[in-house]
Amino acid sequence: MHKSLILFSSVDGHTEQICNYISECLNHDADVISIESSPDIEKYEKIVIGASIRYGKYRSSLYDFIDKNLEFINSKDNAFFSVNVVARKSDKNNAETNPYVKKFLDNTNWNPKVIDVFAGKIDYPKYKFFDKYAIKFIMWITKGPTDTSKKYEFTDWNKVKNFSKKI
Question: Which of 37, 78, 80, 98 is the residue whose CA sits 20 to 30 A from 5?
Fold first, then answer.
């Protein structure tokens, strides 16, 4: 029986939610674990890594984990997905056109076998003051939603399901 490891690097929890959904879509056993917990990856046949963007960057722990485990990850079936609000735009919603996925691939030696990008979520009521207004400013510049009393989810769950089928 195949066992998959689905790792997440998430700031607000939405990437973890996507990872849990991927786990439900798989027809085999999968563990969903934070990349920050330094998991033992040796017992897995498939490695899936999902990471979110905050202020234009992935967390450094993502790159550290990949660098430390690159040889093992490459020896297994593997996949990567990015979660970012820029992917809400049709011209930036795939791995070839999303600037954060392109930057990720330029900054790592890993070439995932399956790669995708999903639009994320903005949860203004959940954010602390600085994050709320910094994100609001970014949304204003990029013509996104700016009402700080609301949540906005842009994730295409059918796209996530199709990604799950590929892995």
Answer: 98
Q: Are 50 and 8 in contact (CB under 8 A)?
A: yes
Rounded Cα gap, residues 126 and 3, in angstroms: 34
| Cβ pair 120, 87 in contact under 8 A | yes
Delineate the domains of the chain, giving CATH numbers in brackets.
3-121+153-166 (3.40.50.360)
Q: What is the CA radius of gyration of the chain?
A: 16
Which of helix, strand or coil describes residue 142?
Answer: coil
Tens of pLDDT, residues 112-154:
999 999 999 999 999 999 999 999 999 999 999 999 999 999 9
Measured in residues, the chain has a length of 167
Return d(Cα 45, Cα 20) in angstroms, integer.
18
Contact yes or no for 73/95 (Cβ under 8 A): no
Q: Are the C-beta atoms of residues 33 and 41 closer than 8 Å to each other?
A: no
